[in-house]
Write a structure and sequence with these properties.
The structure is a single chain. This protein is an alpha+beta fold. The protein has helices at residues 3-6, 10-29, 41-58, 127-142, 165-171, 219-222, 229-238, 261-269, 274-281, 294-297, 340-354, 379-392, 406-415, 440-457, and strands spanning 62-66, 73-78, 86-92, 112-114, 117-119, 149-155, 180-183, 195-200, 202-211, 217-218, 303-310, 321-322, 325-334, 360-369, 372-373, 397-401, 419-421, 437-439. The strands form 5 sheets. It has a 6-stranded mixed sheet, sandwiched between helices. The protein has a 4-stranded antiparallel sheet with strand order 11-13-9-14. The protein has a 3-stranded antiparallel sheet with strand order 4-5-18. The two termini are 24 Å apart. The model has no long low-confidence stretch (mean pLDDT 95).
Length: 459
């Protein structure tokens, strides 16, 4: 690197290389790496190879495309000394399908810049955010300021549930050994309200099947004399949550940790209008666990929901029938320290215990994942906090999210280290939807924030 760049601050470096950055970003977006569509299988390998090239050009000493049971992984590293701390950067290069195409205002595979935003599939999730990591790393290497080891692991199956990831982690523990994992695949509260995601809820999901008589029955001949499976299913479901919003499964809350007061105070600072929230989803009131705010309920506390329910006649007109079967798909969002397998079995046992006579009840677990919480007092979190503060001009809020990213708990369980979720997405970026975009000002500030993270982390 020319000595001219050695003394450049990160803002100057971005300005000097902006066109190249955008061109490299575009080269990734033009590869339609849709992991759920078989016709794009070759594109997955093309995208992995392109990331290999870009990481080498950014300064990695080595980079390779590694096979898995599914789509390949990209691994790269920059090693200084064994005794120095190591940061493992995770990202994914696969994207969601672009359909419906008629709702896009521009070609989803050809980046378009409008009103300070770059529009394309993967603009944010996760090619744009992964580029933030790559360019912060590049700056530090090219200007001789990187003082820790860095590894990169990029996968191509995140959008289909990362089916190959856990086996890959298990078989590459030594290769991926690190002190902290850094991920940019989440969002901030707002452009003017920077935040760091400190928690994700886990998940347990089941299907309930209730069997009654051996066939659908005439409701006039049998109604009132035979247990109706749909009625029985409704009775069962109604008993899972009490009038105070508490889940009634025995032992359900045994491992639930209280929300630290410091986090509750941060949550209270998040700009939020209950009236606007209600209006946005067209409800006249909300419901949840007593003693907690809406933002606490949907991020820091567990929940139970019926995701689908069916049985009997649902077609046009009327059919007086007592159905022989009823079904429901239900789920619990879990919080850190709750084990999804333990909860799954407890739910099955509980449902069987409250099943009424006259029907047979079967509960089938479908899938699940662990929750995750990152302490806000560890050095890596403090470094991320400083990075955001320098880049955005204000201290970021610690914000747990209500969704689930099972791979984050897999990192902790298999690799034994915490993850810092330095995400720079915004709600208006419309990830997974037509016209996905990335705010270019936030994107550049993201590069600054990650750069400052490294400086603070290695200090």
């Amino acid at each position: 690197m020319h000595k001219f760049f050695d003394s450049m601050c990160i803002q100057e470096y971005i300005a000097a290389h902006r066109e190249r950055f955008l061109s490299e970003w575009a080269s990734l977006i033009r590869i339609p790496s849709v992991s759920c569509q078989p016709e794009h299988k070759a594109d997955m390998s093309r995208c992995a190879e392109r990331w290999k090239e870009l990481l080498l050009e950014a300064g990695c000493q080595k980079a390779e495309v590694l096979p898995s049971h599914g789509n390949p992984f990209v691994y790269a590293e920059y090693k200084i000394k064994d005794e120095m701390p190591t940061v493992l950067v995770y990202a994914h290069y696969d994207v969601m399908p672009v359909e419906p195409l008629d709702q896009w205002k521009s070609d989803p595979w050809e980046p378009s810049i409008r009103d300070g935003r770059l529009y394309a599939r993967g603009a944010d999730d996760d090619k744009g955010q992964a580029m933030i990591q790559a360019k912060a790393f590049e700056y530090l290497v090219k200007t001789g300021q990187l003082c820790c080891n860095v590894k990169f692991i990029f996968e191509g199956e995140e959008e289909i549930g990362s089916p190959s990831l856990e086996a890959f982690l298990e078989s590459h523990k030594e290769l991926l050994k690190a002190d902290i994992i850094l991920v940019s695949d989440t969002s901030m509260i707002g452009k003017d309200t920077p935040s760091i995601t400190t928690g994700l809820r886990g998940l347990a999901y089941w299907q309930i099947e209730v069997d009654g008589p051996n066939r659908d029955l005439h409701s006039g001949h049998f109604g009132g004399a035979v247990k109706n499976p749909v009625n029985a299913l409704c009775e069962i479901i109604a008993k899972v949550v009490d009038s105070n919003g508490r889940i009634t499964i025995p032992g359900f809350y045994d491992d639930v940790l209280p929300i630290p007061q410091a986090e509750r105070e941060m949550i209270a600072q998040i700009p939020f209008s209950q009236e606007a929230y209600n209006k946005a989803i067209d409800v006249d009131d909300v419901f949840g666990e007593a003693g907690y705010s809406t933002l606490e309920r949907n991020s820091c506390r567990p929940s139970f929901d019926v995701c689908g329910i069916w049985g009997g006649y649902t077609g046009e007109g009327s059919k007086t029938v007592l159905p022989s079967k009823a079904f429901a798909k239900v789920s619990c969002r879990l919080v850190a320290n709750q084990d999804h397998e333990k909860i799954s079995q407890a739910f099955i046992d509980y449902i069987q215990s409250i099943a009424p006579k006259g029907v047979r009840v079967k509960v089938t677990p479908m899938h699940g994942g662990q929750g995750y919480v990152c302490p806000i007092d560890i050095p890596a979190y403090k470094a991320a906090e400083k990075g955001f503060e320098i880049a955005f001009g204000k201290r970021p809020l610690a914000a747990r999210r209500g969704g689930s990213i099972p791979i984050i708990s897999a990192f902790e369980q298999i690799l034994g280290c915490k993850t810092i979720l330095m995400g720079f997405g915004l709600e208006q970026n419309a990830i997974h939807s037509p016209n996905e975009s990335m705010d270019l000002e936030v994107w550049e500030k993201g590069i600054i924030a990650v750069t400052e993270f490294y400086k603070a982390f290695q200090a």
